[in-house]
Amino acid sequence: MRRQKGILQNIAQRLDIPQDIVLDLPRITMLGNKQLLIENHKGIIEYTSSLVRVKLNQGELYVHGQNLLLGNLQTEQILIEGTIAEVKYDT
Fold first, then answer.
1. InterPro entries in the record, alphabetically (predicted)?
2. What is the tens place of the pLDDT at every residue in 50-69?
């Protein structure tokens, strides 16, 4: 499995293809501490106003904060808004 991942990374670099596409990785974009955009996710595990847990291909993403709201829910994209205090990627 590691060898295959290494081969895919090498191909992506040589062909100038983003690794998130080749390796099925999430793309996480944060705007200050107010918005967090998660692309290429596998679903929401838990949602409260202080915690959002998102399933990723390899592990989970924990978003802790205050007044967290889900916006722009799409098949492959989630926008979390509120006051974000901590983001943790657990593999």
1. Spore_YabP/YqfC (IPR022476), Spore_YqfC (IPR022477), YabP_sf (IPR038705)
2. 999 999 988 999 999 999 99
Bigger pLDDT: 70 vs 16: 70
| DSSP structure string for 11-50 | HHHHHT--HHHHTT--EEEEETTTEEEEES--EEEEE-SS
Residue type (1 letter), 40? N
Residues 6+ apart with CB under 8 A from 37: 27, 28, 29, 30, 31, 72, 77, 78, 79, 80
Query: What is the reported pTM?
Result: 0.79
